[in-house]
Amino acid sequence: MKKLLRVAAQHMRRDVRRRHLRLLQIPIGVGVVLLACADVPLAPVGLHVSIAPTIVWSGGLGSLRSEQFRLVELEPRSEPNGSIIENQWSNFSIVVGGDTADSWRSGPDKINFRIPALYSGRQSVLISTAGFLDATQTVQVVGAEAPVWFPLSAITATYQVLDLGRGKVLLDDLGVLKILDLRKRESLPLFPEETRSSLQLPGPSYRRGSAVIGNQGFDPGRLAVWNIEPLVEETLLTCIGGRDSFGAPIPDTAAELAGGGCLSLDWRGIVAWGDSVIFEDFALTGGRFELAPTGEWGVITTLHCCDFSARGRSLNAGWPVFTNTGRIAYSVEYDAVSGVSFSENSDTLFVLAGVGDPPAESRSWTLDVLETETGTKYRSASLEPDLLPSAILLDPLGERIFVAATKGGSGQTVLLILERRTMDLIVEVPVPFEFSASNEGGKLMFGGSTGQLYFVKTACCDVGGINVFTFDTM
């Protein structure tokens, strides 16, 4: 019985196949075409892909995974002259926020890509592969915010920015001291518009929320420490600096230290205790003082600036570190220092140091970590040759270091994020576009509870106002 059933089933299958083939026969003249044997093109199939991470730095790395990538052989893309374009493919592309990303295979089913220079925000990711339908994903990009703020006149050539805390800075705008509220994007004069400061640059004080300001009136030799909010004069200082043709003192900037020390800077060098020059170096012209959080130590940074007058020259006697009484503790053999940041307890000093002849772009730049008291070097990391660093900030919320720099070739502003313990680079966050040709310096500041960073990029001999960049962090 079972044998009879098997034979019957075989006859039924043969009969179905014969009827199926008869349905596919289409007479054309005297010929017959069997569609079952025709070469019919296959339609593209869907591409199933996953993306990680979903929150990523601008300039950071992302990755795509798909089993279908095993079937894709990446074919290099070429220029019209035949030269190969690195990490670009003729049969595969990843477009993030409208910009094509560099990509490369990192496994049989995995392709990595670099996020282009994009502003913060949610961005679409379009994946195109020959033979497959396009696939889309989304990522949250973390980087610079748009738009960039231009708070001052375009002809302003200021290079001293004093951090007042709480997202506010004090600076000079064509002789008028102004407070910039970086969070609200507001600019207000510190004193009435018709009043000028005899001090070209506001200087730091160890007192929180205070600044050293020149006299308001006809006594340019008078320096005082002012509490900024509310605006109250606190004390007079005695480091008056050099004198003009009429015998009046003309310091550029000054600083008040915790131990009663007072330092000022004029065209000759650094002055302390009245009119006594304690560190004579023309290359310091235009520099700015930086103080340790405790006020126990003081240093001065130099300008990148174009080689105008002394600016951009190398230091003759090294780079001085001052005690809280205004005396020199020691000097370090640097030719230039573009930025410094002290640790929270002031015992460690992080220095953006340059060695070599000017201009600044020709120098070798390193990030050095020193013991503040002795200058002993704990460790050092070399920066890429095309980077011109201008500001540094220790992350108050984690073990990271932020460095603002300019790409020497393109002039593009970038934010470097490094691991504090190893000094390894975590990511280089680019600003999508460059708004100023100036690269003389600036100040990095923490935005407090917002978790944001502000970089106030300044100009000196190249006028152009200042640019305020806001960076989101994670």
What labels would you give this structure?
474 residues, mainly beta, Methylamine Dehydrogenase, Chain H, five-stranded mixed β-sheet, 1 helix, disordered N terminus
Describe the structure.
There is one protein chain. With 474 residues, the chain is mainly beta. The chain has 2 domains: 50-142, Sandwich (Immunoglobulin-like); 162-471, 7 Propeller (Methylamine Dehydrogenase, Chain H). The chain contains 1 helix and 40 strands. Strand 28 (319-323) and strand 29 (328-332) form a beta hairpin. The longest helix is centred in the N-terminal third of the chain and has 23 residues, at 2-24. It starts with a helix and ends with a strand. 41% of the residues are buried.
Question: How would you summarize the topology of this molecule?
Answer:
Blueprint lengths: L1 H23 E4 L2 E4 L15 E3 L2 E3 L3 E5 L10 E3 L5 E6 L2 E5 L2 E2 L2 E5 L2 E5 L6 E9 L5 E8 L19 E4 L2 E6 L2 E6 L4 E4 L13 E2 L5 E5 L8 E5 L4 E6 L15 E4 L5 E4 L3 E4 L3 E5 L7 E4 L5 E5 L17 E5 L4 E5 L3 E7 L5 E8 L8 E8 L5 E6 L4 E8 L5 E8 L5 E7 L5 E6 L10 E6 L6 E6 L8 E5 L3
Parallel strand pairs: 4-13
Antiparallel strand pairs: 1-2, 3-5, 5-11, 6-7, 8-9, 8-12, 10-11, 12-13, 14-15, 15-16, 16-17, 18-19, 19-20, 20-21, 22-23, 23-24, 24-25, 26-27, 27-28, 28-29, 30-31, 31-32, 32-33, 34-35, 35-36, 36-37, 38-39, 39-40
